[in-house]
Write a structure and sequence with these properties.
The complex is a heterodimer of chains A (75) and B (671). Helix content of chain A is 19%, strand content 41%. With 75 residues, chain A is of the alpha+beta class. In chain A, strands 1-6-2-3-4-5 form a 6-stranded antiparallel sheet. The chains are: A alpha+beta (75), B alpha/beta (671). Chains A and B meet through helix 1, strand 3, strand 4 and strand 5 of A and helix 3, helix 11, helix 12, helix 16 and strand 10 of B.
């Protein structure tokens, strides 16, 4: 089942299923490694932008953009 | 003689600047890319008696046509055609960095990979099979630690080795059948018609890259080709192809890393994680930022002004004394003595005395920048910036503006949305730059010496507040639209390297000294002449030419409490360069109070009250930026309209603010 990135809490990991943002934003996300299947770990998701870890590399995402990333939660 | 050119290419935060410094040592030169204001760093190194030229390209994640930086890097690679590219790859982040590598290989370049920051990777327990990596990639790979100079010799050797050999690196990435078919069709038509690899161009056409499509259109190919391209994008939607192509490249990068880069099962909790728990905390983030900035200004003031500043003042005064005595001794004419003492020593010298102050400021800002904290500042400000119509990343150009507005505005270019870029540019002058520091410093010494650091902090805070209010106003009026998406890497905190910080500090201080010797010298000389002419009038009096000009403009400032012609002239003298405000006051007051032999601070105490000093400081904080800033705005926006707009609206705001300070202060019974 795919869920918006914002619904995951700190410490959870999900694999990217699809990105539903505009062309520029989608391309930028892809180029930074947010490709389909990539595992994303939530580092911080409370107030302000979300911080995720992508292969150990920390990236901050605005909440509006993060909402458009759909993940498939790993068990 | 140059024997070859080497270009450095790499992701942002891959340690490229440090690498460049380690490779070239002190042998470097900073300029601009032709036609644009992106900084261009060049340098050189020697190997076996031959000299090589090194160009540092802007740090990018990709070589598309999405940002100015990417276009510059890409056009340089395609048209200037460096002999070898050193591709700096962050060892902590191999897959994403290899995405860029695949693009370099597709451009048909000879490359050498520097697997950089090996020490950090080791701390994170990442293991490498360097030989395997090199074999799978088909490119020499050299492990390096640029901060410690490790691997630099080896990379030079590998680079020259590749340069001298006749080899062609293989193009590694294979795409799906549909894309490959399009590539081979386009490749056949394009081969030999373009100064760069046809396969690369074909791929870019399929991606829908606008730059390449324009070039192709301009070359006048047969109608069939254009039809084909149109059909290609209509049939599939270029977005689909675009993402499939990125996917394939990442796929390749992942396969290269598989088995050659081994990460531990569990990511260990690093020091960065621990620091970030505080620095990015939802309650502590902003207070931590404020505390850091307060410390920066306190230190700047205490160390730069109180400790080092005293020595500089003594030195300039001593030199002025010696010059005065020597000139008298050789019987120099009175006007020459007046020019040297009043014009040069009290004018230009008043500026030079602040070198210690700005040295400390640039040192501290450099430490912040090099440590990785800037990205966190942008992070904690994102929420607040959004309320004012901007996004977190727009905060970085503003902090850089504290040093100097020119690089601040230049760095606004990295924002990919026009609205963010324009607003960040237009509000940048409210970020008080290093050159204004001497002005505050004199007024603080005259009236508020007990609370120097605090007053300074409050002035800077006022600057930020006005900047944010203007951002809100601009985003509601001239630049409507959504704040753009925020995506930003948070690189690990790093111990700043002494070399980078000192280098950055020196570049800035040198710029300051250079301005003191050129622009400020010219301004002060001109004003000196106007102040002592005509010969019939008493020099430095209101009957001099300058006094008369000042008398005309002075009434503008009377509502703000300071309406003497000297202060008004000084404000206008600050438009060529802000340091000239103090230079001019120093020269004019010195001329006036020459008998009493007063220093500038005492003269200021006579001319101002604490309240008018405050309104004068607010005025200088907010008013029209210097010519260098205005001209960079002209270049960046490619128009005359915006710099003129900036010059006028900042003046209006500063006037209103200074008048408000004076009026409200008077009502409250201050003077």
């Amino acid at each position: 089942m795919d869920r918006g990135l914002l619904t995951l809490t700190q410490g959870e990991i999900g694999n990217i299923k699809l990105i539903d943002a505009g062309r520029c934003a989608t391309r930028r996300l892809y180029e930074m490694g947010f490709t389909v299947g990539a595992p994303v770990k939530i580092i911080k998701n409370d107030a302000g932008p979300v911080i995720v870890s992508l292969v150990g590399n920390k990236i901050a995402l605005g909440r509006g953009l993060a909402e458009k990333i759909k993940l498939e939660r790993q068990k | 003689m140059k024997n070859g050119t080497v270009a450095l290419v790499g992701n942002p935060n891959s340690g490229k600047t440090t690498f460049f410094n380690a490779l070239t040592g002190s042998n470097q030169h900073v300029g601009n890319w032709p036609g644009v204001t992106v900084e261009k760093k060049e340098g050189g190194f020697r190997y076996r008696g031959r000299k090589y030229h090194v160009v540092d390209l802007p740090g990018t994640y990709s070589l598309g046509a999405f940002s100015e930086d990417e276009i510059i890097a890409r056009n340089y690679i395609l048209t200037v055609n460096p002999d070898v590219i050193i591709n700096i790859v962050d060892a902590n982040n191999v897959e994403r960095n290899l995405y860029l590598t695949t693009q370099l290989l597709e451009m048909g370049k000879k490359i050498v990979v520097a697997l950089n920051m090996m020490d950090e990777a080791e701390k994170r327990k990442i293991k490498f099979d360097v030989e395997g990596l090199s074999k799978k990639l088909g490119v020499p790979v050299i492990p390096t630690i640029a901060t410690k100079g490790k691997g630099i010799k080896e990379i030079i050797k590998a680079t020259i080795d590749v340069m001298d050999r006749e080899i062609i690196f293989k193009n590694p990435v294979q795409y799906n059948e549909a894309i490959e078919q399009h590539i081979s069709y386009l490749e056949k038509i394009l081969t030999g018609k373009l100064p760069y690899p046809a396969r690369w161009a074909a791929l870019k056409i399929i991606e829908g890259d606008e730059e390449i499509l324009k070039t192709i259109e301009g070359l006048g190919f047969a109608q069939g080709l254009m039809e084909y391209i149109k059909e290609l994008h209509r049939g599939h939607g270029s977005e689909g192809f675009e993402l499939e192509i990125i996917d394939a490249k990442y796929d390749f990068a992942n396969r290269v890393a598989e088995g050659t880069v081994k990460r531990p099962q569990e990511e260990s909790i690093t020091l960065t994680d621990k620091i970030d728990r505080i620095c990015t905390n939802k309650y502590l983030g902003i207070p931590v930022f404020a505390a850091i900035m307060l410390i920066v200004f306190l230190l700047t003031f205490e160390v730069g002004e109180e400790i080092l500043g005293e020595a500089a003042v003594g030195l300039i005064e001593g030199l002025a004394g010696i010059a005065g005595i020597s000139l008298n001794y050789i019987g120099a004419p009175g006007w020459l003595i007046s020019f040297v003492i009043d014009g040069i020593f009290n004018g230009v010298g008043a500026v030079v005395e602040f070198v210690p102050l700005i040295t400390v400021l640039y040192l501290l800002l450099g430490l912040l920048e090099d440590s990785g904290y800037m990205a966190r500042a942008a992070y904690v400000w994102d929420d607040l910036m959004r309320k004012f119509g901007l996004q977190g990343r727009a905060f970085i150009p503003l902090i850089i503006g504290f040093g100097c507005n020119v690089p601040g505005i230049m760095s606004a270019r990295t924002l990919d949305n026009k609205k963010d870029r324009m607003i960040t540019t237009l509000i940048n002058p409210f970020m008080s730059c290093g050159a204004k520091l001497p002005i505050y410093s004199i007024f603080i010494a005259a009236f508020f010496s007990k609370y120097g650091g605090l007053i300074l902090f409050l002035l800077y805070a006022l600057g930020i507040a006005v900047a944010l209010l203007m951002a809100k106003l601009l985003s509601k009026t001239l630049f409507k639209g959504e704040a753009s998406y925020y995506i930003m890497e948070l690189p690990p905190y790093r111990m700043p390297t002494l070399r980078n910080v000192l280098r950055n500090m020196w570049d800035n201080v040198y710029g300051f000294l250079k301005r003191a010797g050129t622009v400020i010298f010219v301004v002060v000389t001109l004003l000196w002449m106007l102040a002592v002419l005509p010969a019939s009038a008493e020099p430095y009096s209101q009957f001099s030419i300058l006094g008369r000009i000042g008398a005309i403009i002075a009434p503008i400032f009377r509502p703000a409490g300071f309406g003497n012609w000297q202060e008004s002239v000084a404000l206008f003298a600050g438009i060529p360069a802000k340091e000239a405000v103090i230079g001019t006051l120093g020269m004019l007051y010195a001329g006036q109070y020459v008998e009493e032999g007063m220093v500038l601070v005492n003269a200021v105490q006579l001319q101002f009250t604490p309240l008018t000093a405050l309104s004068y400081m607010v005025m200088t904080l907010l008013y029209t930026p210097c010519v260098a800033t205005l001209s960079i705005v002209g270049k960046e926006t490619n128009s005359l309209k915006w710099p003129v707009f900036m010059a006028l609206y900042t003046f209006a705001i500063s006037w209103v603010a200074a008048v408000a300070v004076f009026r409200i202060g008077s009502l409250l019974g201050f003077n």
